[in-house]
Amino acid sequence: MIARPRRGRWGRLGLYALVILMLAWTLAPIYFLLITSLKAYVGTISFPLSWLPRPFTWHNYAMMFSQYSVNSVSYRFLHALRNSLIASTATTLANLIFGSAAAYVLARARIRGKNAITMAFLASNLLPTVALIIPFYVLTVTYLSALHLYDTNLLLIILYTSFSLGLVIWIMRGYFESLPVDLEESARVDGATRISALLRIIMPLSTPGLLATGLLTFLTAWDNFILPLVLGPDPSAYNLPFFIYSLNGQYLHMNNQIAAGGVLAAVPPVLIVVFFGRYIVSGLTAGGVKG
Amino acid sequence: MAVERVASLGRPKLGHRIFRALSGEYFWFYLLLLPSVVILLGVVIIPMLYALKMSLGNTSVVVIGGHGSVQSTFVGLANYVALMQNPAFWQALRETLYFWVVSIGLELTVGIGMALVLNQKFWGQKVVRVLVFIPWAVPTVVNAMLWGMILNGNDYGVLNDLLLRLHWIRTPVVWLTPTPVFQGVPWLSHSLGALGSNLAMNAIIVGDEWKTLPIVAILVLAGLQMVPAEYYEAARVEGASWVSQFFRITLPLVGPILTVVLILRTMQLLRAFTLVYTLEGYGLPLLSISAYQQAFSFGAFGPGSATAFIIGMIALVIAYFYIKRLYREVL
């Protein structure tokens, strides 16, 4: 906290004006999304635009869960929800297990060029997805077509895993390096193997880092759009972002339905940020500053 | 520890070194490292090399019943030469750089400004810090659709609705069309246009910043909170002004955090595909959009891969500078 001399009346007024400006910029679009999701279609295309949810309806939300039949809106929504949940969770677990294992080795082992290896992982995460999507597609439909990975969630999980692995390794390596080596060595003097020292002592102490990187990975995977766009065009393989994109019809923009889908897709990540935002921030800063 | 270091000075024969590497605890080390290395090779390095191979040929892909075949005749650098001679490629490159530079510029000014405000004491500070963070959590596609509604070119677009009610404009503005900005001042309009600026681009940058300023502000805030208050007290005793306190104390100490922020943002910005594709389709050809369009809309996998490979190389060059700076700070 910056301790400054006490501000005058005008200083306080200016500060509150800035805070209110910041809140308006942040909350006005969210308010607009919420009211649009509760409007009937006519309320979204008339001028002047109503700044309250009028004509009011719950229908946009109800249709996501009712009248289930093949390729109906609810069919696509529920499949997309399931795919997003499975893919994001699986990606997170894979990233945490593989990433922290590699990070531990890169923090503790005396391997030549381990800095270079860490850099290679981090650099691989700086590659834009769009640079990789063309070879992904071609390899999937030609040489690997016998594996029938096209249009499957499994393919998305495999590819997502590579997207944040470098970041996980980088942050977790910083965490592991910040823990004193003596801790492990004393456990090993007491007869513990390196693996059990890792699982019983190092991992519990790294929980904040694991939580931060795990949630970051989950949010990244939840957000992905370009992979399903190219590799999962069948409604059964939609994820939530692609489902919302698909609501955007060729002739009609049903803004109220899109808004309802958008609110539902935003709920899990917003809850994560509200309740665990602190951990994400401390993980990023600790990992970034120390390692 | 010392014993091992002495032993390694003797440079044992290759067979011994492999044996030592695969025995004892190093076996476990390599086993733990293996999955990540396999992922790096299989999902990043091999696809990149394959993209390079496709970009060096006249490549076509035919898919029948889920099984495809790829045909590629080697043409050397022809695809790259064709790109370099194509003005559309340079326009795409300029627009991509414009997007990147303006976004980073906004984040380093407005983002740091937001962090400085959030670092003050005011009523409701804790709640405000949480609320301000929320847009970052909104998925990119949702953000795109939301700003599509706000920037809609009809009178029922939210921004147009607001400006019409305030009588600031008389007819609705079509925000998401690439018209030049500052048309009243020709020289400014032309030079900005040459740099890749247009109305749609700037509108999209605003929409993108709504989602990304929060993470910048919150991370910088975390950095500000780590600066010991005594530094500022000492500076005040010495009579340092607010401005020199900011540039001499705050900025240097928040520097490492800014590096993290820049890395995260560059990762996302070079990936800036979702927002532009969702709002504009092929209407605003950033490099990423152009690579996608050439491969998946025109079926021109050679030029598409060449563009994608160039994007990858730009990303790696930027990554190199970031990582170098990062390690200088660490070591």
Describe this structure as you would to a colleague.
The complex is a heterodimer of chains A (291) and B (331). Helix content of chain A is 71%, strand content 0%. Chain A is built from twelve helices and no strands. Chain A has helices spanning 9-37, 59-62, 73-108, 114-126, 129-141, 153-178, 181-189, 194-205, 207-223, 226-231, 240-246, 255-290. In chain A, helix 6 packs antiparallel against helix 9 (207-223) and helix 9 (207-223) runs antiparallel to helix 12 (255-290). The two termini of chain A are 25 Å apart. Chain B has two domains: 12-80, no CATH class; 86-299, Orthogonal Bundle (MetI-like fold), CATH 1.10.3720. Helices cover 72% and strands 5% of the residues of chain B. Chain B is built from 15 helices and two strands. Chain B has a two-stranded antiparallel sheet with strand order 1-2. In chain B, helix 10 crosses helix 12. The longest helix of chain B is centred in the first third of the chain and has 32 residues, at 87-118. Chains A and B meet through helix 1, helix 3, helix 4, helix 5 and helix 6 of A and helix 3, strand 2, helix 6, helix 7 and helix 8 of B.
Tags for this entry?
heterodimer; A: 291 residues; mainly alpha; MetI-like fold; 71% helix; B: mainly alpha; 2 domains; two-stranded antiparallel sheet; 15 helices
Order of helices and strands of chain B: HHHEEHHHHHHHHHHHH
CATH architecture of chain A: Orthogonal Bundle
Assembly type: heterodimer
Low-confidence stretches of chain B: 1-9
Q: Could you tell me the strand content of chain B as a percent range? A: under 5%
CATH class of chain A: Mainly Alpha
Poorly predicted regions of chain A are none
The major sheet of chain B is characterized as:
2 strands, antiparallel
Q: Reading side by side through the largest sheet of chain B, how are the strands ordered?
A: 1-2
Number of strands of chain B: 2
CATH architecture of the largest domain in chain B: Orthogonal Bundle
Based on CA atoms alone, the radius of gyration of chain A comes out at 24 Å
Strand content of chain A: under 5%
Instruction: Predict the CATH topology of chain A.
Output: MetI-like fold
- Arithmetic mean of pLDDT of chain A: 85
Counted by DSSP, the helix tally of chain A is 12
Based on CA atoms alone, the radius of gyration of chain B comes out at 26 Å
List the domain count of chain B as a whole number. 2
- Which word captures the global form of chain A? globular
